Amino acid sequence: MKLLSPVQIGGMEIKNRVVMPAMHLGYCNNGAVTDKLIEFYRERARGGVGLIIAGGCAIDEHGYGSMIMINDDNYIPGLSKLTAAVHGEGGKIAAQLFQPGRYSYSFLAGIQPLAPSPIPSKLTRQKPREMTLDEIKGMVDKFVSAAVRAQKAGFDAVEVIASAGYLISQFLSPITNLRDDEYGGDFKRRMRFGVEVAACIRKAVGPGYPVIFRVGGSDFMPGGNTNREIAAFCNRLEEAGVDAFNVTGGWHETTVPQITMAVPRGALTYLARGVREAVQVPVVACNRINDPFLAEEILQNEDADLVGMARGMIADPDLVAKTSAGRTGEIRRCIGCNQGCLDAVFTLKQVNCLVNARAGREDEEPPRPAERPKNVLVVGGGPAGMEAARVAAERGHRVTLWEKSGRLGGQLNLAAVPPGRGEFAAFVDYLTGELRRLAVKVELNREAGEENIKTFNADAVVMASGASPAGMPVEGADGSNVVQAWDILAGKAVTGRRVVVVGGGAVGCETALLLAHKGTIGPETLHFLALNEAEDWERLKELATRGVKEVTVVEMQKSVGKDIGQSSRWVILGEMRRFGIRALTKTRLLRITGSGVVVEKDGEEQALEADTVVLAVGSCPAAELGERIKAELPEVYLVGDAVAPRKALDAVHQGYLAGSTV
Known about the structure:
There is one protein chain. With 662 residues, this protein is α/β, with parallel strands linked by helices. The chain folds into three domains: 2-346, Alpha-Beta Barrel (TIM Barrel); 375-467 and 623-661, NAD(P)-binding Rossmann-like Domain (Rossmann fold, 3-Layer(aba) Sandwich), CATH 3.40.50; 482-617, FAD/NAD(P)-binding domain (3-Layer(bba) Sandwich), CATH 3.50.50. An eight-stranded parallel β-barrel has the order 3-4-6-9-10-11-12-13, surrounded by seven helices. A hairpin with a 2-residue loop joins strand 23 (587-593) and strand 24. The longest helix is centred in the first third of the chain and has 20 residues, at 133-152. The radius of gyration is 27 Å and the shape is globular. The two termini are 40 Å apart.
């Protein structure tokens, strides 16, 4: 595979073409490197990734809390421990030099953000202060000092972040740079700050030391830079001494989704290709690349010279090693859910992972092989039960799993049904394959009861019996026109043309989207009609977003989707608006009738006509059996929805801990 072949960046040879781009992890202590951070990256280096880019590494006091700091020599000893750990595993590591500009948060840094012009940020809701010429020169010096510091600490390269709407992006963009001096105005002058940073770093670190720039392949902002301008910028940076370009998507403020599950795998690779056509140095393609075969296709098509997998390496630190050994079926692929990574970052928590419960625990002892193999029974084949069975079997226990339905996966199977959510199925496939590899005895269509659990004579029992959809104590809830959202997602129920979905949480929103897609044209038809100019663009958008159903969501709270993670919620709400779904918030269901529902909004009753009423009002844990078994048997673990309804991330992590403890 070309993916596994070496490649040269400046004076550095990388053993393969897989890059782990920088991602904020939240593992540092007041900017200092911690054992948690070191062990996280050590495990990825041991897994064979060609180049790790650590960061962002803040070059001044405007860095975010718990991120790596590289603005003072006092941080060099800790950074040196990090680089030594990666080198000890045969890996290479670069430091990403970070300055956020107007994306700085004053409540974190305690000072007003700086930017080329005083244009408020929609992301932070703060107005920056316009930088003086002396401050601009001083900022270039800070980038240079940080690069020299990285070199002293043993980093194999430095990467300058000029993407995502951070400071260098702000200088380059006509949206945020309204200056009329040598650093603003036409495109050549807007490039000047970034070019000076590159040229001055090159001079300071010497001719052989690799300098990489992380660029957004397009701002994806109205009036901003497109791929053409970014490619021209990269061409100028190459002249200034840059050795490689790491190409991601657009700004954080863009309305174009870039790394959520709904984004097709490798969809933004064309941005890397646009840059590669303008430069002679290596280019890295990024965003939603989680599979070695997709990565290989990108390289074979010469869209890029290397591929970046950030969250893919969080999900499986051994991705490269498994690929090298021909064990691609064992790769635990990132599913783009963002629950443990970006949602954690946005809430100032430490990064973990839904599909890899060990992520963020690398500094803890891994699950030990069982001292005495036990006969373990797992009741329930959802994510919690499957993960518990996987870990217990990996440790050497004899594991049997009972699942009352005819299919493994539990609610993940339902989660994978709505449009743009299909990646959940990849995690079910991974767990299913692992149970097969580890010789877990899986019995489908096996209903568990108190007596057959007791007679099984297990040494330990893991109760992961899941939950059932909740009903509503309102008049008409048992009517023939009422169905559960779970049954819609499972394909067990159909609806009429007019549908009211009661409950605006994640399940309600995603069920509404599934229904709103009915009757719309799909990607292949859209592609065919567009290429053949069969319809104008407005008509094509209408055909792609207006189906055969009228869908209304009724929610008691003031907004819908409140239980959806911050990184995905705006995408789902945007899709709901695009597909014409009506959302009634602060609205209470009073009763269900044969012709629809009666609700109360603003103190007044209102009738909503509907052929079908869909209930999406939560779930009830199947905890009773587990509590009885726990009282009867000596070693019982209750996990997942069998304890209380929870997100898939929490269920998987509970399963991991049970499998590690049993």
